[in-house]
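Hypothesis: this fold can be encoded by more than one sequence.
Test: take the structure tokens below, design a sequence, compare later.
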């Protein structure tokens, strides 16, 4: 085979065979297919797409390009969860121990954030001593012992995806559904769980901007999971405003603790309970929302979270300390009414500029900085009410404060947002 012939075939809108896709991915992983040819193929896929069969073959070829985790030593139905990303998304911090508190093992590998705020691993690393790098044996043993572990993705997992994603990022070929679906699902399949919950975010702060795009991506990933025998459900969730109250690594950990102590916002608490109920059902455990919420607020989920932090070297005293940001700047309502918009993208970028996220992979994080909202979309406000507090390592200028305030939209009509938009199974 020659790469140029396969590029031409896809360029002309023809399907690549299973063997051709396997040859391309194997060659790209071992270096015999160079970057410039793979980038040409990615662009051909961008314009011509891939069939369901091609997407499946691409996914499984990528799975075969690296290490695959065997979780069979762990009793029960192992569960995993993946989010396509957003702003203030601390859901995994709460959801993993909550599901584990029902005796369902959660063995999860998570990633770092790029572009807005930190990923799950960045949030956990804001806890002094927390170890994200664990051997496969340590990972499995911890899940056997306490039922939950959240670690960083292995460098040996799905090698082809690491190479291909970096290439797509610099060749404007990221936002094409077959390549997104194969990237996500190759990692989830290789990570070894029996059941997978996919949180596909849609809206201003998400990668998928329209419901139609989110539905197509969700169905593609669900079908891929089922093809290889994994129980898979996708939940399309709103990302038009930040998740919960906090944006920023330490601040999101503190909000997660509040939620697990029964002190979180009702809407965020209910949202996480609904996701947990779906994950539990995937594992064959049928619980009411009241049962799930009871575990969330009565300390059982928090007990699992603390056990995970301790097992991975974290300091429980440090876990509960407040942010050490030297400046906390309040933001007040400029008029009466209801919060109608808190654009997730704008506030994600604002938090990134504070140091809570990375513009490029080498950027250092300020774990302490970020934003905590006192009001969210749908809440009533009066002039002078506290809307949010900005945590920063330097004084916020009036210009930046004005920039923040202009993105807080207040109107006369109350809007009631819905976190879960649609479930695809």
């Amino acid at each position: 085979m020659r790469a140029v012939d396969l590029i031409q075939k896809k360029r002309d809108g023809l399907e690549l065979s299973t063997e051709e896709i396997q040859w391309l991915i194997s060659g790209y992983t071992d270096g015999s297919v160079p970057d410039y040819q793979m980038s040409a193929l990615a662009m051909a896929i961008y314009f011509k797409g891939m069939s369901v069969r091609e997407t499946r073959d691409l996914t499984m070829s990528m799975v075969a390009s690296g290490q695959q985790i065997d979780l069979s030593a762990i009793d029960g139905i192992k569960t995993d969860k993946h989010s396509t990303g957003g702003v203030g998304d601390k859901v995994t911090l709460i959801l993993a121990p909550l599901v584990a508190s029902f005796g369902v093992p959660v063995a999860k590998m998570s990633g770092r954030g790029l572009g807005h705020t930190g990923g799950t691993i960045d949030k956990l690393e804001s806890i002094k001593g927390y170890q994200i790098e664990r051997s496969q044996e340590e990972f499995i043993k911890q899940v056997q012992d306490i039922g939950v572990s959240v670690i960083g993705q292995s460098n040996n997992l799905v090698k082809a995806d690491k190479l291909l994603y970096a290439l797509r990022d610099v060749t404007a070929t990221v936002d094409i559904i077959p390549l997104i679906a194969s990237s996500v699902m190759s990692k989830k399949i290789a990570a070894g769980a029996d059941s997978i919950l996919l949180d596909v975010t849609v809206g201003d702060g998400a990668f998928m901007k329209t419901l139609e795009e989110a539905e197509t991506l969700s169905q593609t990933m669900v079908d891929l999971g089922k093809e290889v025998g994994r129980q898979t459900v996708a939940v399309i969730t709103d990302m038009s405003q930040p998740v919960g109250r906090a944006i920023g690594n330490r601040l999101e950990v503190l909000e997660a603790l509040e939620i697990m102590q029964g002190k979180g916002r009702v809407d965020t608490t209910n949202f996480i309970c609904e996701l947990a109920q779906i994950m539990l059902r995937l594992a064959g455990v049928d619980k009411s929302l009241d049962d799930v919420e009871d575990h969330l607020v009565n300390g059982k989920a928090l007990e699992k979270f603390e056990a995970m932090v301790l097992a991975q070297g974290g300091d429980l005293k440090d876990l509960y300390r407040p942010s050490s940001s030297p400046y906390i700047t309040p933001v007040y309502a400029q008029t009466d009414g209801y919060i109608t918009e808190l654009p997730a993208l704008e506030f994600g970028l604002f938090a990134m500029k504070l140091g809570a996220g990375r513009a490029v992979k080498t950027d250092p994080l300020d774990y302490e900085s970020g934003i905590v909202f006192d009001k969210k979309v749908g809440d009533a406000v009066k002039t002078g009410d506290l809307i949010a507090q900005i945590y920063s390592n330097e004084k916020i200028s009036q210009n930046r404060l004005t920039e923040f305030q202009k993105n807080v939209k207040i109107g006369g009509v109350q809007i009631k947002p819905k976190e879960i938009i649609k479930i695809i199974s």
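The chain has a mean pLDDT of 94. The radius of gyration is 22 Å.
Hypothesis status: open.
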